[in-house]
Amino acid sequence: MENLNYDVWILTVGNELLIGRVVNTNASQLGKMLTLMGFRVSRIIVVPDDIEEIVEEVRRATGRVRLLVTTGGLGPTYDDLTLEAIARALNRQLKVNPEAEAMIREFYSRRGMPMTRERLKMAVMPEGAMALKNPIGAAPGCVVEEGGTIIISLPGVPEEMEAMFKSEAAKILERIAPQISIVECSLTIKGVPESTIAPAIESTAKKHPEVYVKSHPKGFELGAPVLDVRALASDVDRGSAEAAALEALAYIKQEVVRLGGSTDEARCG
Amino acid sequence: MENLNYDVWILTVGNELLIGRVVNTNASQLGKMLTLMGFRVSRIIVVPDDIEEIVEEVRRATGRVRLLVTTGGLGPTYDDLTLEAIARALNRQLKVNPEAEAMIREFYSRRGMPMTRERLKMAVMPEGAMALKNPIGAAPGCVVEEGGTIIISLPGVPEEMEAMFKSEAAKILERIAPQISIVECSLTIKGVPESTIAPAIESTAKKHPEVYVKSHPKGFELGAPVLDVRALASDVDRGSAEAAALEALAYIKQEVVRLGGSTDEARCG
Questions:
Q1: What ipTM score was computed for the predicted complex, to two decimals?
Q2: Is CATH 3.30.70.600 correct for A181-268?
Q3: Which of A31, B45, B108, B211 shows its CA 20 to 30 Å from the CA of A45?
Q4: Measured between alpha carbons, how far is A252 from A246 in angstroms, rounded to an integer?
Q5: Cβ-nearest to A20 among B29, B76, B157
Q6: Smallest CA–CA distance from A80 into chain B, residue
């Protein structure tokens, strides 16, 4: 297998996200879970329920990133197109996946409901796919691999997405995740505007290229600007990651005091 | 100018969005405002604070969509790279924009603060850009046009993004927006599962291809499934858009009753 590092793209499918009816909490939730596993999320893409547009982004990711996680478009309706698009992007046949079909039959028979054409559609997957059990809803997830890229398709309903990620997808990802710890430390600064502390942040970031340092304006308290400065570090050893993040913040703390501002103690989590 | 229709891509820049520290409310807020103006938002893309990755997406959009709206990366810090990336993507020089410089000077002089190298950085824009006044914060926005694509860059702080969109960007967009009205009507269904009503939604969507019909599961009430069905229609005439959306929902209502469920009255907004 090629070495595609630990880059991940998240592809969320759904017109409701593009027209602003729904906020994309799936993407941020996935971003957090994947980052904490040590992956580098380098793209979140939202596409319409349009097969050509889904195909374009799946093709762009395949062979380029280690992992593509999709959400949405697995349901029973005519505009649930994700698995058809993945099959087309990878030039694979669409077939009823027997494991997926069994999961769906079980879901409905427990509720005393028959199998229908629409329900069976949720079992139609690209050839060679592995079905993932949906712990809450009807639509199974799907995993395929191509050109070194693993494509994991999860449902769009946030509770189903999260449940399937934690109970099913995480098992697959743990095998390919880097063995590292990620630590974020933060510091609250009062009395120094962001543009005044910017040179200190720039120099600490240059001195510690492995630490991601970023300031976040938090508004004003009693007329004085309040900023959060956050340092994100990763290392095979958790203690080393934390030490690197704290070292980056220590320099900023010192500069804040020199510039007449104040800070609290750095917190790590 | 080429006819690039009314397609819009939204490019939101920031590692904090990718690692899930911040939910991308800017994208959904922009998606809503642009859809209501009659544009078709066909992509939301989140990229890291990495110049090559921003350049790649700006190049992909240029000459392809009518409008690219970016958020984030306009501030004073070293990792605010959006305008540098746009200049590189369009092969333009970066220059201090005199209007932007005047806006920044005014912002800080009012607060009794001097101009610094970091603050002046916020005035550095691609050659030929127009600066947009920031009604709240320090960083001006930026507009450039290339290959029929207008690129509007807004700040990443949500309040600043929204204020600049409404007071500055909307004026530019109104001139190029289609002269149409968008109406969304919705219906709440009880007692019929999504997979059971799916064939009716499919056939109404096929019968009314200009209406976007979608079901949204809302959970259960007293053991019975609850669904929202929404129909989005657009037309030069608002009344016609509403009539089309209501007609699409009327068929679903009839099917729900036939299947033993109940609905409320359709609401439009």
A1: 0.81
A2: yes
A3: B211
A4: 10
A5: B29
A6: B214
